[in-house]
Design brief:
This protein is 45% helix and 15% strand. By secondary structure, the chain is α/β, with parallel strands linked by helices. Mean pLDDT is 86; it is low at 270-291.
Length: 297
């Protein structure tokens, strides 16, 4: 066994078809021990190219290959810049089509357990990823009457002042020495993230990354609920002031309407009836997912 368990409220062994969905390539490093043992199908929302335009998908592909992990067609659906433009433009049909893409794949592959980014207010891609997964889980239940266990993991608690919170909804994976060594080696060899990895290890030490925590999603479609502005809004304002960005992605103006539309569409809210008509025509043009999504950038 690669891991041992210190807090597992329910046996994860009953799930045969796990999936990992992340906003950016590289997030899989945070749960390296879990993916090494459970071999989930891996979905990646963006290519992780940032403002520099250099994709991280190849690095994630190289990381997954020796682990024997399959990557899905929904692997780098859009560039980072493309996603930010879709958010600013309120391109609701694109996000609803992304939900369809995940839903269809979950059904086709019999996914029964999904782990995805948590809503942390750190980066828009992370938060959108969480919302898309919540919607896909609901859609699978509605279409098949089958429940998918829905879990999240935090990406940024190691570098922030917020206190970490653990309770009976957490499943903790305590990595064996060899698995921890492989995890840290994989992180240090991930070229595009070397600066972040060095910072994390310097700040927390190597031992901190031995424990991987998966948190059960109790309330899907969580909204940003921390005090103050989300980090991406504060940083966006700083970058606009520096002349690096033209505009700032804001929670109330840009993120909440998208989250709300995805939630309404998933739960059948009448408030989204007009959006459903638009969505239907968009999906008809290319419901298979990846190609239509890429073309919409």
């Amino acid at each position: 066994m690669a891991t041992s368990y210190s807090c597992v409220p329910e046996s994860l062994e009953v799930f045969a078809k796990p999936a990992l969905v992340v906003g950016h390539p590289g997030h899989e490093l945070k749960v390296f021990g879990w993916i090494s043992e459970y071999k989930p199908r891996v979905y990646v929302l963006t290519d992780g190219s940032g403002r520099q335009g250099v994709s991280r998908l190849l690095s994630t592909t190289r990381l997954l290959a020796p682990l024997g992990i399959e990557k899905e067609n929904a692997f780098g659906l859009i560039s980072d810049i493309g996603l930010y433009r879709a958010i600013l433009a309120q391109d609701i049909p694109w996000f609803l089509t992304a939900v369809d893409c995940l839903t269809e794949s979950f059904i086709e592959n019999g996914v029964d357990f999904v782990v995805a980014d948590a809503m942390e207010g750190f980066n828009p891609a992370h938060d959108i990823c969480r919302t898309l997964v919540d919607a896909a889980v609901v859609a699978v239940s509605q279409e098949t009457s089958r429940t998918i266990a829905n879990y999240k993991f935090c990406l940024t608690e190691w570098e922030r002042v917020r206190q970490e919170h653990h309770d009976s909804g957490c499943s903790h994976f305590v990595l064996a020495d060899e698995t921890l060594r492989r995890k840290l080696n994989a992180a240090e060899e991930y070229a595009e993230l070397q600066d972040e990895v060095c910072k994390a290890i310097d700040l927390r030490g190597r031992e901190y990354f031995r424990i991987e925590c998966l948190k059960k999603v109790i309330q899907p479609f969580q909204e940003y609920d921390y005090a103050g502005k989300p980090d991406y809004e504060t940083w966006g304002e700083q970058r606009v002031a520096e002349g690096a960005y033209e505009s700032t992605i804001r929670y109330e103006e840009h993120m909440f309407p998208i989250i709300d539309a995805i939630r309404n569409n998933a739960t059948g809210s009448k408030a989204c009836s007009a959006g459903r008509a638009t969505h239907a025509s968009h999906v008809q043009a290319g419901r298979s997912g990846r190609r239509a999504l890429r073309n919409s950038e």
